[in-house]
Amino acid sequence: MHPRYQEIVDHLDRHRAELRAAVDSVPAERRATSPGDGQWSVLGVLEHLAIVEGRVGTLIEKNLSDARVAGLSPEVDEGPLLASLNIRMFSDRTRKIKASDAAQPKSGREIDELWQALDDSLNHIRRLLASADGMRLSDVMMPHPVFGPLDLYTWFAFIGSHEGRHAAQIREIGATLAGSPTSTARV
Question: Is the N end or the C end of the chain the one with fewer CB atoms within 10 Å?
Fold first, then answer.
């Protein structure tokens, strides 16, 4: 595996572990509880992630396929990748970002189903990444609705950083709920 791809895989794995730890830090009986004021519950955050990651995977797959047809160049740079990308903006919780209507949680799915959806989407992302091993993904651009055009390296890194952003949100939800009574709001 090309070193840049391994770096992205490690980034994805690190943030998935962080997300799992954040969810595990919130008692199971409180994961469906909204901290109030229209905020998402832990389950709502997981549903949002499953929606976004599924959609991003589909878009990456299409753009990667189109780039292959157009003649994607091989990657010649083996230097570190993540430090050269502007990915801190994805995990910056001081900047509030409103998710689109399509990315809003709605279904009230159970945690096992949400983890399965997240695992499926991450496996899809990993397969796409492996299929592009050795290709220069900095040449393939895709628009982001908030951050503008991003190359595919940045999109793959976005997935991990986005999970990191929401892991922090889940820890905040857990801290808020620590002193409040249990309810079953699924927002």
Answer: N
Tokens of 186: 């699924």
Tens of pLDDT, residues 93-120: 888 888 999 999 997 899 999 999 999 9
Please state, in angstroms and rounded to a whole number, the distance separating the CA atoms of residues 136 and 36.
45
Residue 148 to residue 150: CA distance in whole angstroms: 6
Q: Which DSSP string corresponds to 67-130?
A: HHHH-PPBP---S--GGGS--HHHH-TTS--PPPGGGS--S---HHHHHHHHHHHHHHHHHHHH
Residue 52 is given by DSSP the state H
Give whole-number Cα distances, 41 to 7, 110, 134, 176, in Å: 31, 12, 40, 11
Q: How far apart are CA 18 and CA 163, in angstroms?
A: 8
Give the model confidence (pLDDT) of 30-73 as tens digits. 999 999 888 999 999 999 999 999 999 999 999 999 999 999 99
If residue 141 lies in a helix (H) or strand (E), which one and from where to where?
strand 141-144
Single out the residue of 102, 70, 79 nearest to residue 153, CA to CA.
Answer: 79
At 26 the three-state DSSP class reads coil
Dihedral sign for Cα atoms in the order 104, 15, 151, 68 = negative
Give Cβ neighbours of residue 115 (< 8 Å, ≥ 6 apart): 46
Structural domains of the chain, with CATH = 3-177 (1.20.120.450)
